[in-house]
Amino acid sequence: MADHYVKQQVGVADGTKQPPDKADGREVGGSVRLTLGSKVTGTAWANGDTIYLGKKHAGRKITSIKLCAGASLATSTIDVGVGGDPADGGTVETADKYVDGATLTVVDTPTELPLKASTLDDEPGDVEHLYATIGVADIAAGTELTFIIETVGVS
Questions:
Q1: Which H or E run contains 80?
Q2: How far apart are CA 20 and CA 16, in angstroms?
Q3: Which helix (H) or strand (E) holds 119?
């Protein structure tokens, strides 16, 4: 059987480099940070609305996006993507870069949204402004919900 190494360990632990490289601290042994983004109570989100969630800082990588809602979102779908800086009138550029069409019917339980595998093997990059886009059905004004966005990188 063959031995294989994950991308982050090639040149570090596989013996291909002498002396071996050090592991990239942004991905191996990096610090975890959480960003919370809560819906303003009393505000309805309609099908097609975009919501600014915050930013991913340079040199960090998104490793998890969870959502906790006080009521089922029924058939509403959630995309999480990137766009321009809201201070410059930013608009969504890639609506579903991180999450595409997730639904949430679980109540009062932080639930992992399906993060696209294609983003996890990317290098930690530049600053990204994060946006959620609501699809299919509206989310009622009385629904409480919070996004929990986890990033890893060097503090």
A1: strand 77-83
A2: 8
A3: helix 117-120
Please list, in sequence order, all residues whose beta carbon lies within 8 angstroms of the beta carbon of residue 153, skipping any fewer than 6 positions away: 26, 30, 31, 33, 57, 59, 60, 61, 124
Model pLDDT for residues 47-106, shown as the tens digit of each residue: 999 999 999 999 999 999 999 999 999 999 999 999 999 999 889 999 999 999 999 999
Query: What is each CA distance from 136 to 46, 96, 100, 129, in whole angstroms?
Result: 9, 15, 13, 23
pLDDT in tens, 37-55: 999 989 999 999 999 999 9
- Phi, psi values for residue 72, rounded to 5°: -60, 140
Please answer whether residues 13 and 4 qualify as being in contact, where contact means their C-beta atoms are separated by less than 8 angstroms: no
